[in-house]
Amino acid sequence: MSTLPKLIGVIHLPALPGSPGSQGVHPTRMLALAGAWAVKEAKILAQNGFDGLILENFGDIPFYKTSVPPETVASLAILAAAIREVAPKVKLGINVLRNDAKAALAIAAITGADFIRVNVLSGVSATDQGVIEGCAAELIRERNRLGAQNVSILADVHVKHAQTLSSVDIALAVEEASGRGGADGVIVSGSTTGRSPDTLKLEEALRASRKTNTPLYIGSGASIESLPEYVSANIRIIVGSALRVGGKAGAPLDSKRVKKFSLAWKSAQKMAKPRRSQKKIKKQK
User: Fold this and answer.
1) Rounded CA gap, 44 and 238, in Å?
2) Is residue 277 over pLDDT 60?
3) Helix pair angle (27-47, 255-284), 10° resolution
4) For the chain, is the Cβ count within 10 Å smaller at the N or the C terminus?
């Protein structure tokens, strides 16, 4: 597996060809608009020190549950390849909403992306697209078939915009996603896009991730104010809404917000290093 990034910026793509938001516009025009958007945002994030990007079809609402049309897969593959050209040193991830994990894996495999995000890898969730079942068995086998073992899998647990129909114990969900589900990293988010996770649930998930030695990400609601606490606990960050104009999901990136967030991240990293060193010294004594 490739090394997982610690600070991931999400590229909220506008409507892609074939989606309701593209109605009345020729597919080549829609793809050109999305391409310009994606390349611009990738450059901004890379220039500000983000070591990871996630490309997702955010503007394709309402989302298909588990299988998107071929034009969506084709569009995302072209955009992923374009981002690889302009930001080759940044880890690239693919998220095909709502839960087309096999399409995300295929795109990642052929474009050389580093990881995918899967909203429901294991268990069962009642979502705004309907009931979605975990896809770990098929996905892990498909990764082996494609020879794409270098593509890491980041899996949401108790994913946002959903209610779990499996274990309400988030610690158990983390254990099962990383163990029986085969996730290389797990993601905890709030109830919806932009909302922070419940503090108690996050603490439980963190303990479970440490127990299983699985990287833990905050998948929504990360803010400059919360960064010191997250970084000191070695929690990684996936951020989208907080970087955008007005803090609104789907809006264009705000360069000033991106820079402020990046500087706050670097500051939190510097502050966390001495504390971690002190913890190690105490343990050795």
Assistant:
1) 16
2) no
3) 50
4) C
pTM summary value: 0.93
The pair of structure tokens assigned to 180 is 């029986």
Query: Pick from 203, 37, 46, 54: which is nearest to 119 by CA?
Result: 54
In a domain, 1, yes or no: no
Q: Which residue has the tokens 């052929």?
A: 110
What single letter denotes the amino acid at residue 95? Answer: N
Instruction: Give the integer Cα–Cα distance in Å for 59 and 216.
Output: 27
- Phi then psi for residue 91, to 5 deg, are -65, 130
What is the count of structural domains for the chain? 1
CA 30, distance to chain mean position in Å, is 24
Asked if the structure places residue 46 within a domain, the reply is yes
Give the range of the structural domain holding residue 74, as residue numbers without chain letter.
7-284
Report the alpha-carbon distance of residue 269 to residue 265 in Å, rounded: 6
276 half-sphere exposure, CB direction, 13 A CA radius? 12
Mean pLDDT of the chain: 94
Both structure tokens of 105: 């894996």
